[in-house]
Amino acid sequence: MNRRALISRIVFSVCAALLGVAFALPLIWFVFAPFNAHADLDLALPAPPTLANFARVFANGAAVGALLNSLLQAFGTVLLVATTATLAAYALARATLRGKRVIEYVLLLFSSVVSGSAAMVPIFLIVNALGLIDTQLAVILVFAGGLLPTAMFILRDFIASIPRGYEESALVAGASPWRAFVDVVVPVLRPGVTIAAVWAFVQVWGGFLIPFVLLRSEQRMPASVEIYSFYSQAGTPIVPLLAAYSVLYSLPVIALYWYVNRKYGFRFFGGIKS
Amino acid sequence: MASIQLDKIGKSFGAVDTIHAIDLDIGDGEFVCLLGPSGCGKTTTLRMIAGLEQPTRGSIRIGGRDVTRAQPKDRNIGMVFQDYALYPHMTIADNIAYPLKVRGMAEAQRHEKARAIAEVLHIGQLLDRLPAQISGGQQQRTSLARALVHPADAFLFDEPLSNLDARMRVEARAFLCHLQRSRGMTAVYVTHDQAEAMALSTRIAVMCAGDIVQYAPPLEIYRRPATTFVAGFVGDPPMNLVAAQATRCDRGITLRGGGLEMSAFASWPALDRALDRGDRVTLGVRPEHLRIAADGAGGRLHGKLFANEAMGPESLVTLDLDGGVRVTARVFGDAPVLVEGDAAFAFDAARITLFDSAGNRIDDPV
Fold first, then answer.
1. Quick check: helix, strand or coil at residue B244?
2. Hey, are the CB atoms on A176 and B79 less than 8 Å from each other?
């Protein structure tokens, strides 16, 4: 019995180790390759470590501009989603509205369609009809439309957990409903808004299809699309540059996670899923 | 300060009628308690006065002004909530000063006022803390300070002491009593604790199932409860209630019930009218009006000893009557009460309250 337990333990540990290695290898590659002037898809220690890859990426104006475009689209969407989702979620959580449940389920249903690839053709046609093709506004609006319902649901649960007494005591203290919302609900809700904002940011940051379809000119493309400029005409990656650019591309998201984790911790919903 | 009038106020949630048609006239400077068991509609009534709930019918006036449809902010009230509802992201000073902030008072000035009221309530040393960093009793006083910091027309209290432990509650109660006496504030105070209502009120409105059953000064309620419900709710322990059958005889009326016997006493018009409607009555007698004795000129209750509790200044002796009802006598003094097995209480005929078969009090002889 003891022997069998030992064997099963060994087998388990070996399997776990193999699995761990399988997941760790790309990350290890990701740590070394950007600093290796001759990096390829094999794992290799850079000899000597160099920043030359980064220098070449920064010399590429389009690549840097793409990162700025990504920031513009992400912040634009986050601003729009955070504001409207907070207001809408507050109304959904607090108002006694006839047919509230139906509205919620219809929204949930549509949110998975609107952001999905299935809706790309109608979305393209609508954006085209509005004359917004090849504008950042179109990308921001389409992203925001897709993310809004889910952000609303996240925030609605946060708001539902805030005792009504907070607002009511502000109301009897002499505040208007809007004032009570701004003075009491918004500050208490800040962790929830941050969670929703980070989630929305990550969605936009990694989104490929929407900007790829709605934008035309290269100088408006975000990093998620521009990263394909580090592939040769034949479709093979230029690995050293791709690696360096990937690091730059990941940094804002890593920074954001680190900031939120330090400030609020990932205690809500067991963490943020993107 | 201002008066408050409720005129036929009613509230329905969907098809459910929670408040029927309440009339309540609260004078300027009066402290009125809404007393009743949970679910009787007392908190809903308070919330309608505050404007947090819209009445389905009827009207509300504060200081003579009709505020039935007015927003809470336009009613100029101060309110203390059961869970205190302190804003968790603001310091104690900012919490207290919030009613002044929304009225546009400058920061230095409103913090000065907050400090002054905090000193009165002995929380002056906590002004820089957050609500989560102070105790329940301190939170309660912060919430009180926030209600008092602005000169409101009326103050509303929604079971403000129910989250405190027993000792703190008595302390806070005395403090509220002092505050009421020194400020003469118009207040409506919701509670299910009859001791709080007795201690604080100028008048008590006893509520039951969406109606006000009796609205009178505390001692009036204690001495002359309007119904068996009020009699059984007010007093600790409450009034003893024993079902009895009344019989007319040559010398007047006699009462008989399980374990109860009473010498005949002269009837009076109100009792006669009640007995014309039915001979079933309920006899009520306060625990302090029972004495341990096997005989007496008035009435006697026979039963078996159930409990004998020595509380210090008094003892509570409880009997299970032969009819199955449980009655309690309060014996003053710290001397041990010696009673065993079969026992009896005696009481004077002048001390009893009679209720008719519908549970309404039969007027005393005049």
1. strand
2. no
